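Lay summary. Proteins are chains of building blocks that fold into shapes, and those shapes determine what they do. In this project we predict the shape from the chain. Here is one chain we studied, written as its sequence of building blocks.
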Amino acid sequence: MDNHTILYTSHLTKRFKTVTAVEDLNLRISRGDIFGFLGPNGSGKSTTIRMILGLIKPTDGEIRLFDRSLKHNRKNILSRIGALVEKPSFYNYLSARRNLEIFATLTNPHPDHQDIDRVLDIVSLLDRAGDKIKTYSQGMKQRLGLAQALLGNPELIILDEPTAGLDPKGIKEIRRLIIQLAGQGLTIFLSSHILHEVEQMCRNMAIINKGSLVVQGGVEELLNAEEEIFSVKVDRPDQAADLLKSKAWVESVQVRSGAMTVKIKEQKVPLMTELLVQQGFQIFAIQAKRSLEDYFLSLLGAGHD
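And here is the predicted shape, written in a compact code that computers can read:
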């Protein structure tokens, strides 16, 4: 583990009786990175996060943070990590400031009020710090949860579905805050199923499925792989997809929103076009489209949300 690596897992495994939730997982996250952690529901993302936060013990393997073993340095390591796991919970009848004071006393009997003001200011809630939580919108509660994770100046922030349940305005605000924090030197481990958000924010990512690592690498590098994704609009997409699926040179075909998403080598596009025309299909558009969603579905198949 080099000085640039802040989080490292080696052969990380978690079994619950006969069920293996995470198996032989190897991750490496660098300092200052925004790292996307992706996978369908039940893939092992939350179990992995809980092991990293010391909430559950691995069955096998190792977790190292800040070049130290979590198993042997748990207290010191966790003091350098902030986390927002699922929806944050607060006392609705108390103010935002009072909620943060109570949370801060879990690690320090004398809360740092300047630090509380600092994190409230970061998430643009300082002017509403005295208001009761019951008056907050869901987006404000989520920002307060992020403020809570920032208490104590952590070096690593772990965010589990930070935009869940938010409207577009709330999602945009959380995204702005994440990018801002990374710009200030924080390392951010972001677990999310909103692929578009990960594509916009993250530099590197890992995709897991059924507890095992599928791929890890730079977002841009993975999206620019040799195979290309093309959006193909034709008059009968379902029938056209069945035709293309029968061809060995077609990697995969999916029909979504009335258009085909076709994974093929770029040099095979003329052959595909000729085939569709010969079979009587009207082609309205063919567009190269390599989004994270397409890449995700091409790896895991169309059976996952």
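What the prediction tells us: The longest strand covers residues 5-16.
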